[in-house]
Amino acid sequence: MIPRIKICGITNLDDALAACRMGADALGFVLAPSPRQISPEQARAIIAELPPLVNTVGVFVDAPLAEVSELRSFCGLDWAQLHGGEDEDYATALGRRVIKALRVSEERPPDPAAYPGCSLLLDTYHPQAAGGTGQSFDWGLAQDIAHDRPIILAGGLTPDNVGRAIKQVQPFAVDVSSGVEKQKGVKDHERIASFIAQARRG
User: Fold this and answer.
1) Is the predicted pLDDT of residue 128 greater than 60, yes or no?
2) Which of 10, 55, 81, 89 could be bridged to 99 by S-S, CB 3.0 to 4.6 A?
3) DSSP H or E segment with residue 15
4) Can you give the pLDDT at residue 137?
5) Are 77 and 47 in contact (CB under 8 A)?
6) DSSP code of 99?
C-alpha cells in the first residue's frame, strides 16, 4: 500500500500550493505555540486558496475544547490533531476526524487500544517539546500497532529515511515538517518533491 502523505507546519500559501502540486494528500497548520505557529486568520486565508480534495489539519496542544471546535469551523479544517495531554473524553467530545499524537520512546511504547475513536499519529517523545523536534524514534516500536490499526508515522522523517521507515512499519500515512524545511517554518520545495517521491516509492 502506498501511504498517504501529510506536509505539516505550513506557514504560507507558496509552500502550501507547492506541496499540493507535488502530490501531498494533507497539509498541517500549527495553531499552538511553536516556531511554525500561524494565526487562525492566516490558516483560513491559505486554506481558502487550496485546490480540491486536499485534507487540512489543525494542530492543537491542550487548547480549550470550545476553542478547537470554533477554530475548526473558522479556518475550514477537515481534521483536528491533538498534540498535548488531551484525554480520551476530550478527543471524543470533538467528534469525528480527530488525530491524537502519541509521543513514543522505549519507556513509552504506543498502546494499540488508546483513543479508539481517533486516528493515531506516532511521534518522538521529547520532555520539553510536543513535536516538531526533527528526531526519530525506534520504528520497531510502531510495527505491531501499525498491524492493528492505521497509523500516521511522524518524527524525524526526511527524504533520506522515509523509504526505510515505510518498508519497516507499513504505516497508513507519513507526516513530515522539519525534514523538508530550509529554515523553521519555510519549506524547501525540492525536499518536499524528494520526500513525496521516496514515500510513493515506499
Assistant:
1) no
2) 81
3) helix 13-21
4) 86
5) yes
6) E
What is the C-alpha separation between 117 and 98, in angstroms, rounded? 8
Q: Are strands 98-104 and 181-183 parallel, antiparallel or unpaired?
A: unpaired
Q: pLDDT at position 107, please?
A: 85
The whole-model pTM stands at 0.94
- Name the nearest CA neighbour of 29 among 83, 85, 65: 83
Do 10 and 27 contact (CB within 8 A), yes or no? yes
Please report the pLDDT score of residue 23 as a whole number.
97
Percent composition of the chain: helix, strand, coil (DSSP 3-state, to 5): 35, 25, 40
Residue with cell 484525554: 87
Structural domain harbouring 106: 4-201
Q: What is the pLDDT of residue 1?
A: 80
Residue 127's nearest CA partner among 112, 154, 107 is: 107
How much is the pLDDT for 125?
Answer: 65
Q: How many domains does the chain have?
A: 1
Which of 121, 123, 140, 42 minimizes the C-alpha distance to 79? 121
| CATH number of the domain enclosing 191 | 3.20.20.70
Catalytic residue positions? Answer: 8, 123
Amino acid letter, residue 115: Y
